[in-house]
Task: inverse folding
């Protein structure tokens, strides 16, 4: 696997493991990166967790910069939700 794909999968795994004890963990989902005519995938719900798939129709893909923006947005929303719940009713 290319280095960028391995780094992305390791980061995703760390984020997933680090959030297990919180009230609002991010969903465990399939994460794939496009390789040489195949998808290099990681799914923490399966065993083994990493595998290759042929390119599939109707899969949604984004570039790494857009993915980072979406991940940051979701992470901020999750943090805001947790902080809001800690404050309690007004």
Result:
């Amino acid at each position: 696997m290319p280095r960028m794909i391995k780094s992305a999968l390791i980061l995703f795994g760390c984020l997933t493991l680090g959030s297990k004890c919180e009230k609002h963990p991010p969903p465990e989902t399939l994460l794939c990166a496009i390789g040489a005519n195949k998808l290099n995938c990681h799914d923490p719900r399966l065993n083994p967790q990493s595998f290759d798939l042929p390119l599939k129709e109707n899969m949604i893909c984004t570039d790494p910069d857009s993915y980072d923006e979406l991940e940051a947005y979701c992470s901020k929303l999750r943090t805001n939700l947790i902080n809001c719940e800690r404050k309690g009713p007004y």
